[in-house]
């Protein structure tokens, strides 16, 4: 009877190991959250530069463009992983 219980316990451990491997995915939520925060900060800085300083239009658009690249990277991470 003990042999059967040991076999069942061993099978249960093996099943949990396989389930753990299967459920182990790359957690990208924290990376995506950081990229979203960076995007929002860059967008805000770009808008302030663009509208507050008339001679800084190009710099403001550049900062907004970099923010868009960050947002596109977050988009790809969301759908690829």
Characteristic key phrases:
81 residues; mainly alpha
Can you tell me about this structure?
This protein has one domain. By secondary structure, it is an all-alpha fold. The mean pLDDT is 89. It contains 3 helices and no strands. The chain has helices at residues 2-23, 29-52, 57-80. Helix 2 runs antiparallel to helix 3. The protein is rod-shaped.
What topology emerges from the helices and strands here?
Elements: H1 2-23, H2 29-52, H3 57-80
Helix pairs in contact: 2-3
**Spatial gap, N to C terminus:** 46 Å
Low-confidence stretches: none
User: Any idea what the radius of gyration is?
Assistant: 25 Å
List the helices and strands in order. Answer: HHH
Main sheet attributes: strand count, strand direction, barrel closure: none
- What does the average pLDDT come to? 89
User: How many H/I helical runs?
Assistant: 3
How many individual domains? 1
**SSE class:** mainly alpha
Beta strand count: 0
Helix content: over 70%
């Amino acid at each position: 009877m003990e042999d059967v219980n040991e076999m069942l316990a061993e099978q249960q451990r093996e099943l949990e190991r396989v389930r753990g491997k299967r459920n182990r995915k790359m957690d990208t939520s924290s990376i995506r959250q950081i990229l979203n925060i960076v995007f929002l900060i860059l967008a805000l800085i770009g808008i302030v530069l663009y509208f507050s300083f008339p001679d800084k239009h190009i710099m403001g658009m550049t900062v907004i463009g970099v923010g868009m690249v960050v947002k596109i990277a977050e988009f790809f991470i969301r759908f690829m992983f």
